[in-house]
Structures are given as C-alpha cells and as structure tokens.
Amino acid sequence: xxxxxxxxxxxxxxxxxxxxxxxxxxxxxxxxxxxxxxxxxxxxxxxxxxxxxxxxxxxxxxxxxxxxxxxxxxxxxxxxxxxxxxxxxxxxxxxxxxxxxxxxxxxxxxxxxxxxxxxxxxxxxxxxxxxxxxxxxxxxxxxxxxxxxxxxxxxxxxxxxxxxxxxxxxxxxxxxxxxxxxxxxxxxxxxxxxxxxxxxxxxxxxxxxxxxxxxxxxxxxxxxxxxxxxxxxxxxxxxxxxxxxxxxxxxxxxxxxxxxxxxxxxxxxxxxxxxxxxxxxxxxxxxxxxxxxxxxxxxxxxxxxxxxxxxxxxxxxxxxxxxxxxxxxxxxxxxxxxxxxxxxxxxxxxxxxxxxxxxxxxxxxxxxxxxxxxxxxxxxx
Length: 381
Known about the structure:
With 381 residues, the chain is α+β, with helices and mostly antiparallel strands. The protein is 48% helix and 13% strand.
C-alpha cells in the first residue's frame, strides 16, 4: 500500500496546537489514522522563488524516486533477497528501520539539511548527493559484474566439451603420466592440440600425418589425451614452418584447434582465489548499495517535506500555518479518506479538482482542496 502525505491549514479557532488538530482529523477519518509528518519552518524567501522551486521540486522528486528504487532493485539482485527496504535514520547509530517505519516516524535531519539555508540551496545539495551516490554505485556495479562475467565464462568453459574447456589440467596429467615435462616446443618444432569430433576420429588417425599435403608432420606423434561425449582430444607434433598450413587444413576438415598456454590458463587455486575475491566484492557492494539506498531514500523523503512546505505556502499563503500528516491506505480506504477530507475542507475546494496533473497545469500530482503527495515505501507499490 502506498503512503500519502497531506497538508491542511491550521485552524487556530478550533485547535490550540498542531497535536489537537491531528487528533481532530484522526477522529473524523474512519478508514485510517494519520500520523504527524514533521515539516520544519524552512527559509521562505519570495513567492516568486517558491514558485520556481515548486517546478524544480516536481522534476527532482521524480528523479530521486527513480534513483532510489533503482538502487533498491540492484540491492535485491546482488544480495539475492527481496527484504531490503531499510534505512538508517539520522542519529540512528546504524540502527536500521523499515522504510515504512521511517515514513511514519519521519524527523527532519537538521545536521544534513540546515533549515537556515534557502530552499533552492537544499534542493541543489540533495541533487548533488543523489547524483554522486548513483555514479558511485554504477561504477562499483560495473566492476562487480565484470568479475562475475569473467567467473561465469571460466565456469562455462570448464563445464563445456573438449572443444571449449581449458586444457591445462588435462595436458599436465597426460604428460605427467608419460613421465614427460610437457608438450614439445623448440626452435623448429611445436605441439598442436586438436579436438576431433568422435565421428571423425578414425579419419584423423589415418590422415593427420599428411593432412592438407603437409609433409613435415612427425609420424606417429598424435596421441589421445582425453575423450568426452563429443570430442577426442589429440596432440600432434609438427614443424613450425608448416604449422599455419596444418592448422588451415584442420579447419577445412572440421577439426577444432585448441590453443594451449599453461601460463595463461587459470589453475584451480587461482579460480578459488577469484571466487573469494568475488564474494568479498559482493559483500562490500551490498554494504555500499545499502548505504547509498538509505541516503537516497531519506533524501527523497526530505524532498517530500520541502515540497509539502512549498506547496502549502503557495496554497494557503503566508505566514506558513499548516498541519502535515501521513497515512497509508488501500485504494478503497484512500477513496473514503479523500471523501472525508474533501468534506472537512470543502471551503478550500477550487471550481474543479480531481484533475490529472497535465490538465490542472500545476506541480501537484493531483488537485485536491488540500495539499497531497503520494510516496512509496518500496518499488513494489
């Protein structure tokens, strides 16, 4: 269920303070019970500057919302859990609370967003903070995904056929079992490894020594190293001067040439080290995204508070005297609450309300007799 933040004018004739008015509204609403939403007395400036800020707020609001929930989606994907919508409130000393709880207990963070600064400056500060956090996470995600792709490619090859899998362990085991140091590599001779499709194995054994008309292939030098369901892996010793001609002939006969470089292939120990590095990077990334989401989401709710302040002044006038509340409701409950609020504040109603933003031509999401903004506690709402 989404949350709604509403602002109504303070009625000093009926209520002695804000708490009394909230209690009065709570009694009138049968579907849900609104909670106080703290909006500080920000630096007002001129009405012209507030009008300008109102337009800016709508744009920044949408941007910060999108970035916040993009971070939350990334956090869920990396961590592998869907229960990640938590933030660390100001002064929370790393105590996490759900975004829904944070909304219900919202308190302005004066240390991070001093209320003596102009509204425009607060907006700029939030915009810069969110942009920096998004860029940081984007870079870290790209680095992590690059390492994941590297690991996935290695594992894919290891689990593949002899036509693609790394040859290191197979080659070492073969030569060790024959009491040899490794493949022959000299100034004049080299060893070529070929994955031969099983249906072509007999043909290979009959023709490899003269393949493609090559005469400088060492006779009886081709030995079977390994076999799987698709290929038989053979080696063959050839003179370097005809190696390119020999390889070309292999390709023409549908044999798969396999490159082998012991120095370039990853050992099991190196793969295990890569797995450890990837796990460490993942844990660090989860912490970074969690913190970035917390900062971005709390900045978004502060934006909502600023927006409530600006829109309330533009709607109710100066000096700022209004009461802000938040409530959570289903579609049916919202309909009932809207009807009851519209009745309570019918005197504020314009000639037409209930219009969409484009029709109304204003910065509010929807036109009501009072100020109203919608806010989500998660991207699933």
